[in-house]
């Protein structure tokens, strides 16, 4: 990235002092509001993410791109398939602006070192998609609420010019949304024939038939039973130790950001994104005592089909890349070293509780009537 962002990622700082050969530990917990976005030099490039084929976003997208290009003189990156929309490609007035854009294609072009920050237009899915484009460091993300829910999109588009100017000037609050680093090991991906030292043709060794795939996940990894009528039966390992066998419709492994998505619908608690944790939530478990649990962010989870599982399972990553998991396959999940720096409208705490109130109507109920002194007598 041309412009470098600064923010403190340390969650706990320990200070050791010596007194008569006795070490005293003091723990300092960082204030979430202390994470700030500043620029070493003004940002010059921006990636604009827009939901494909959404007519309601056309006008905001055009206004924003014209403002960034014509007024702020920024280099604008746009996904190639966005410009292929007939409503955009057929607009002659907007055509002169699109010629100045830099385009890219998902899974083909690497723009990780080209973009200073990201602007998302849409709902929460747009932010999840933006996260998936970056397998390592993610530029700061400014998300405008133009979708259906908007839990992760705190900015309103009505005053976009002043808000974008504020971000370009720097000194904005940041929440570091942790991601999950996921490795899927396919045991029997393909069988390759080979000739051994004696010239005998074989079916291929274990290494040639295995393939690993890696994903960066912002919300959750979901393992479910797929089309089968049987319960999923999978073993769950924590740092190499078998902790339980999940007999359920499936299991959700989520980040704190994902705790307010599928996990909360499955009965999990809601965790603030600044809490370093991983949540494990069963989906309709066949056990009354199987409750969701929260484990430290530093652990390694591993999920495999149980030996006596009746059927395969299916896994998806933030609702994408869905694939079948067979016997011998494994899914390894750890906390990623590359979080998503999400720009706050106010600060991490106020934005989060505002989203709980506006999107989930958290703790909304009809209030009791005021009790007067006359009522107390009865």
Q: How would you sum up this structure, described in words?
A:
This protein is α+β, with helices and mostly antiparallel strands and 378 residues long. The protein has two domains: 5-170, Probable inorganic polyphosphate/atp-NAD kinase, domain 1 (Rossmann fold); 180-335, Probable inorganic polyphosphate/atp-NAD kinase, domain 2 (Tumour Suppressor Smad4), CATH 2.60.200. Helix content is 18%, strand content 35%. It has nine helices and 25 strands. The chain has helices spanning 58-71, 80-83, 86-89, 92-98, 124-132, 160-169, 262-265, 348-359, 373-376, and strands at 5-6, 12-19, 22-29, 36-39, 45-50, 75-79, 102-104, 117-122, 141-145, 172-177, 180-186, 194-195, 201-202, 211-217, 220-224, 232-238, 241-248, 250-254, 277-283, 293-296, 301-305, 313-317, 320-325, 330-335, 340-343. Strand 16 (232-238) and strand 17 form a beta hairpin. The longest helix has 14 residues, at 58-71. The protein is globular and about 65 Å long. The protein starts with a strand and ends with a helix. The model is unreliable at 3-18 and 191-208 (pLDDT under 50). It is an enzyme of class 2 (transferase). Belongs to the NAD kinase family.
Which structural class should the secondary elements be placed in?
Answer: alpha+beta
Strand order of the largest sheet: 14-11-24-21-16-17
Q: What value does the average pLDDT take?
A: 87
Assess the beta-strand content as a share of residues: 35-45%
């Amino acid at each position: 990235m041309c412009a470098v962002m600064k923010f403190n990622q340390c969650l706990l700082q320990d200070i050791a002092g010596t007194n008569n050969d006795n070490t005293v530990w003091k723990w300092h917990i960082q204030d979430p509001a202390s994470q700030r976005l500043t620029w070493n030099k003004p940002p010059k490039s921006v990636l604009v993410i827009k939901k494909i084929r959404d007519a309601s976003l056309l006008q905001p997208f055009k206004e924003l791109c014209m403002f960034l290009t014509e007024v702020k003189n920024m280099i604008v990156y746009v996904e190639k398939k966005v410009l292929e929309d007939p409503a955009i490609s057929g607009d002659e007035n907007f055509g002169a602006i699109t010629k100045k854009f830099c385009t890219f294609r998902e899974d083909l072009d690497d723009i990780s070192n080209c973009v200073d920050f990201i602007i998302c237009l849409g709902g929460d899915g747009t932010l999840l998609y933006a996260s998936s484009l970056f397998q390592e460091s993610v530029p700061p993300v400014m998300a405008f609420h133009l979708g259906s829910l908007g839990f992760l999109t705190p900015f309103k588009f009505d005053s976009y010019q002043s808000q974008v100017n504020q971000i370009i000037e720097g000194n904005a609050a940041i929440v570091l949304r942790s991601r999950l680093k996921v490795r899927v090991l396919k045991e029997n991906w393909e069988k390759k024939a080979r000739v051994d030292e004696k010239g005998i043709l074989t079916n291929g060794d274990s290494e040639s038939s295995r393939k690993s795939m890696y994903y960066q996940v912002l919300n959750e990894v979901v393992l479910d039973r797929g089309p089968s009528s049987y319960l999923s039966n999978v073993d769950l390992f924590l740092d190499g130790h078998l902790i339980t066998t999940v007999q359920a419709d499936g299991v959700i492994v989520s980040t704190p950001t994902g705790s307010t998505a599928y996990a909360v619908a499955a009965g999990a608690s809601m965790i603030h994104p600044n809490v370093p944790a991983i949540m494990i939530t069963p989906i309709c478990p066949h056990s009354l005592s199987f409750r969701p649990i929260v484990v430290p962010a530093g652990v390694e989870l591993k999920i495999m089909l149980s030996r006596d599982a009746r059927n395969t399972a299916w896994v998806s990553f933030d609702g994408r890349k869905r694939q079948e998991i067979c016997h011998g396959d494994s899914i390894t999940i750890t906390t990623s070293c590359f979080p998503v720096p999400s720009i706050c409208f106010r600060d991490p705490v106020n934005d989060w509780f505002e989203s709980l109130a506006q999107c989930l109507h958290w703790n909304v109920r009809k209030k009791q009537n005021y009790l007067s002194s006359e009522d107390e007598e009865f």
